[in-house]
Amino acid sequence: QVQLVESGGGLVQAGGSLRLSCAFSGRTFNSKTMGWFRQVPGKEREFVAVISWSGGSTSYADSVKGRFTISRDNAKNTVYLQMHSLKPEDTAVYYCNKNTNYVPWGPGTQVTVSS
Which pLDDT band, with edges at 50, 70 and 90, does 30 fall under? Predict the structure, then answer.
């Protein structure tokens, strides 16, 4: 069964930190590059970060580069997003998925950064 469950969001002041987790299940994720995405109501979902299956290759959106770090633990079928120096413009619902050929999106986790 294919499933994505994001967690770890919350309300934080500007400059604070949060660590998001994404638990994935299903053979479709085997050996796949995984990504984090975010969406604000009324806007398109946007790319945040991506990590290869081995974890040896990562890439970030310019807006989060130097502040966010993506990682994964394949033994736990989990992808993480460590977020530091959060800004109000980081406020969004955060989702994870394969980097291409998306599966149905999970519920996401809300991140709210207050100024």
Answer: confident
Yes or no: say if 9 and 83 are a contact pair by the CB < 8 Å rule. no
Q: In what order do the strands lie in the sheet with 109-114?
A: 10-13, 109-114, 92-98, 34-39, 46-51, 58-60
**Angstrom distance (rounded) from CA 10 to CA 28:** 29
3-class DSSP assignment, residue 89: helix
Q: Using CA atoms, how far apart are residues 109 and 18, in angstroms rounded to an integer?
A: 11
CA 2/CA 71 separation, integer angstroms? 21
Q: Please, what is the Cα angle at 49 between 1 and 96, to 5 degrees? A: 20
Q: Indicate the pLDDT class of residue 66, thresholds 50, 70 and 90.
A: very high
